[in-house]
Amino acid sequence: MATLTHQAPAPAAAATVRPRHRRSLPVWRWVILFITAVYFLLPLWGALRFSGISAFSGVIGQDGFGSSLWLSVRLAIVTTAITLALMVPTAVYVHLRLPKLRRVLDSITILPVVIPPVVLIIGVLQVAPAGLKESPYLLSLEYVILSMPFAYRSIDAGLRALDLKTLTEAAGNLGAGWVTTLWRVILPNLTTALLSATVLTVALVLGEYTMATLDLYQTFPVWIVVNDQVSAQVSVAASLLALFVTWLVLMLITLLGTRQSRRRGGGEVTLFTATATQTIGN
User: Fold this and answer.
1) Does any domain span residue 116?
2) Is position 248 within any domain?
3) Which of 7, 85, 181, 281 could form a disulfide with 171 if both were Cys (CB 3.0 to 4.6 A apart)?
């Protein structure tokens, strides 16, 4: 009698699962990060130990602290508004209508880096009207010149990352005029570039000393230098306080810019890079 043997079917080959390897930074990158952290944090720690925690409470109560800080903030706001109002339309127009003038505009906007601020302020004081000399907002006009190289290059980098011609043609086909195209199509795509230009301009205004002191206005940097002759500890504490506040503002701008970009379908906003995400407003 024949014996029938039943063989169970061979089990299916199990899928090969490759273990995931976490991407880790090379050792030399950690070394560079450590050296950079020590380079930046060690002087701050030394300044903090020199001034002491108690000096921070005395900074706000010093004479001229509030008025000088408020003057610098007002100058930063006015300078940023004028800079963006001048640079954005100019850069957009050059990119669309006069692309051959990019190199010429690059050369013109780099001049404030070459010319010393002392020369600029002396020339401005010689030709400025008497009524304008009596206003502290003359400094805003001077700061616009100083911030022009940084603001223009930030905006120019943002425009280079866009297909500007396609965006404007699409907006024109939908019936949008020049102002509507600039406000509702181009500006939303320049969020990162505008943030970068704003941060650089504000940082320049809050840290500029030469023009303010020659123009006989006590901005916050001038107040720090003047107060250094009275109390070095309070002056160092004021410098650290200004640095911490600037970092906080930078983080706040980055978070707000990232949230706004994600609402429009973009990615994370970084201050000194330009993204190529393109959207057309409703």
Assistant:
1) yes
2) yes
3) 181
- Give the amino acid at 213: T
Cβ neighbours around 146 below 10 Å, total: 23
pLDDT per position as a tens digit, 21-38: 555 667 888 889 899 989
Domain harbouring 254, CATH code: 1.10.3720.10
CA–CA distance, 239 with 157 (Å, rounded to integer): 32
Distance from first CA to last CA of the chain, Å, rounded? 85
Range of the domain at 77: 62-263
Q: Return d(Cα 60, Cα 141) in angstroms, integer.
A: 29
* pLDDT tens track for 93-151: 999 888 888 889 888 889 888 888 888 888 888 888 888 888 889 999 999 999 999 99
In a domain, 44, yes or no: no
Structure tokens that stand for 166 in this block:
């396609």
Cα 202 to Cα 191: distance, rounded to the nearest angstrom: 16
pLDDT digits (tens, 9 = 90+) for 248-282: 877 776 677 667 666 655 545 454 444 444 554 44
Burial of 105 (0-12, 13-18, 19+ CB in 10 A): middle
9 in a structural domain: no
C-alpha 226: how far from its chain's center?
28
**List of E strands, the chain:** none
